[in-house]
């Protein structure tokens, strides 16, 4: 017991000594700390929810600006059959992987909400139909150049949206205010109708109360120009290493007849440059009404349609002479004198195209929550991209096949230069579209949609082009019996119909499939079948007046 008591006393004494030592050290440290400058604690900024701007918004720390970051990931694969598997066709499958990032910044001011919205899209897409010639023609995509990849593999990074909204003003890169339905219910986006999700614009919108609003918009003209059909258009150069597929057009020569042979065909002609310049903005106006039952909108647009002028030393009178050659049988003075009698002094001209569109959207909650119906129609002159007639086939080209390996081409020019008058002849087009969305259950929905459209050219324009065939060759319709089966500048129509089924097992996840039918035909007569180029006595043995095809595509998409 004595040993135990002694050990306890030793332990107690040791602890007391240690405590005294620690106290002494703390006193010294406290004395030193008193001599140091005092620092205030840095306030901690916590991210706060900004419910006033909507779901997902939060305050940027240290500011009164609310921010929302969102995005999208998408996979698509498709199949489209072709009848002609020649060396220029035969691709059946298509794929795309896409990413999208959105940033939405909003600040409340004495003038209302100040908003800036940014969206960047990037994608890798393959297959002739998925790789978009339309986007490549306007520089929104860049192609692969390999032997097996050229025309089949394509990537893009695009500033899809970048606009400011303030006190009714919208300025930047945004969707055109002309558009209404814009393929809202579709996966592929095949139906006819205007759909310009990205253009540069400056617009003002006035809210008039009770659901009414009116917008006046000045929009980039370069993104709404479908080219003139130029009867001798040829590339002046190509991008190195691309086998002439991606042509760089500096001029697009189109002939004006100066003299004729005894049979009425052209003996001499001069060429004008049919490349359109950016001379004035497109002006768009829209009147809209929104209510609980749906929306209605009336849109109108005016745009310029223009040509450059005469190409120096381009007069020709023989089949072997080439447009734009250094010399020719027609002198500049002679050409000017002949054309002056028609009131044409420089060759440079501007006409005005226009389009109108009306649409209505009906909400149908009495069928099922989320159901809706769109009805839309448009008419235009010199404005194919506004009426959206060429949306499926492709924009920014005067003539294209509806699908790879099709038997004939569609004429899609906004205008042509009439070779007899030297004046601009505008094309006319109209489209009508309907689309119905139905929810079978909260996680299952389908869309059924269809459209019809026509494009035509002024009577006599095609016949006038046939008169220059002996000067420019097959880019103009031939005279005689072969005229009836030439595809050049034929009035045509297109029917599109389709349906989809989409499953959304959880919020913001879509897994869907969509199929479409595309029927393209002539409004009169028949064309030579390009898939069977057989002639008998100089005339085609096989002709077509209508072409049918189908397309199917699957999609897996997650939004956040």
Shape: globular
Q: Biggest sheet, in brief?
A: 16 strands, antiparallel, barrel
Strand content: 35-45%
| Average of pLDDT | 85
Based on CA atoms alone, the radius of gyration comes out at 33 Å
Explained architecture:
- The structure is a single chain.
- With 560 residues, the protein is mainly beta.
- 11% of the residues lie in helices and 44% in strands.
- The protein has helices at 2-34, 133-137, 332-340, 384-387, 461-466, 469-472, and strands at 58-59, 65-79, 93-109, 112-126, 142-143, 153-166, 169-174, 199-209, 212-219, 237-238, 247-248, 253-260, 266-273, 282-291, 294-307, 309-310, 349-363, 372-381, 399-400, 410-411, 415-417, 424-426, 428-441, 444-456, 492-503, 509-522, 527-528, 535-536, 539-540, 543-544, 546-559.
- A hairpin with a 5-residue loop joins strand 12 (253-260) and strand 13.
- The longest helix is centred in the N-terminal third of the chain and has 33 residues, at 2-34.
- It is globular, with a radius of gyration of 33 Å.
What labels describe this entry?
mainly beta; 16-stranded antiparallel barrel; three-stranded antiparallel sheet; 6 helices; disordered N terminus
Please write out the topology.
Blueprint: H1 2-34, E1 58-59, E2 65-79, E3 93-109, E4 112-126, H2 133-137, E5 142-143, E6 153-166, E7 169-174, E8 199-209, E9 212-219, E10 237-238, E11 247-248, E12 253-260, E13 266-273, E14 282-291, E15 294-307, E16 309-310, H3 332-340, E17 349-363, E18 372-381, H4 384-387, E19 399-400, E20 410-411, E21 415-417, E22 424-426, E23 428-441, E24 444-456, H5 461-466, H6 469-472, E25 492-503, E26 509-522, E27 527-528, E28 535-536, E29 539-540, E30 543-544, E31 546-559
Antiparallel strand pairs: 1-2, 2-3, 2-31, 3-4, 4-6, 5-6, 6-7, 7-8, 8-9, 9-14, 10-11, 12-13, 13-16, 14-15, 15-17, 17-18, 18-23, 19-20, 21-22, 23-24, 24-25, 25-26, 26-31, 27-30, 28-29
